[in-house]
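Example record used in the benchmark description.
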Amino acid sequence: MLYLIKPALKEVSRPGRALIATLLALAPAAIALAWRWSAGPTHFPRELAYNSLESGFVFSFTLVILTVMLATGVISQELEQKTIVYLLTRPVRRISILLSRFAAALLMIVATSWVSTLALALTTYGLAHLHGSPVGRDLLILPIGALAYGAVFLCLATLIARPLLWGLLFAFGWEWWVPSLPGNFRMASLMAYLRVLAPHATQDGGEATDIFAILSGLVPTKITAALSWEVLLTVIVVAMAGAMVVFSTKEYVPRDDAI
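Model output (structure tokens):
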């Protein structure tokens, strides 16, 4: 299958996509640099800056937007370019085609989020203070998040005609609001489990004034690390299995408006 990954990797790293990935990767570090410059070296809150930007930008935005774009594009791009028929008539198992293209997209997502995290860590902590920071833990959890979201969006792409549109609604509608709702609502969000495995304190212990923090505090729900691993791994296995089954059996027709 490795011979299939190389052209797929070349496809996902085209200049336009590479430029977007580079901008997303460097944006948190650029914001941190501006924050550091405005606060001054002695008053710069390096831990707060890292946690706020890693949680709010890298995990909640860069990881999610890249995953929804690249994972849904595994199939919709072939439909849009009307190359799906040629792709599926090649003497290669459909599952191998699907997995190789998904692996290429996953490599791009993980590489971008890793570069973003390392650039942010060097800007906020600096080399001298990296020891004891949460950077290593975040580098471990980011691929898990990419796999979980990627499997869901890939499964979505095999099932419906406009996976990017529905993926964006899920990523920046459902996943944006649900983790901050009170009670058991947050257990229906993948991001809630990722935040348990990679927690980032964005407040200094004061009273919560943000509406989302207030809502979360009304009916607190305990999500353990063990439950988070169990849910995320289950989602990955079930969504990947569903995508492979559907892609192996479904007939695809090129579309002019596949997004």
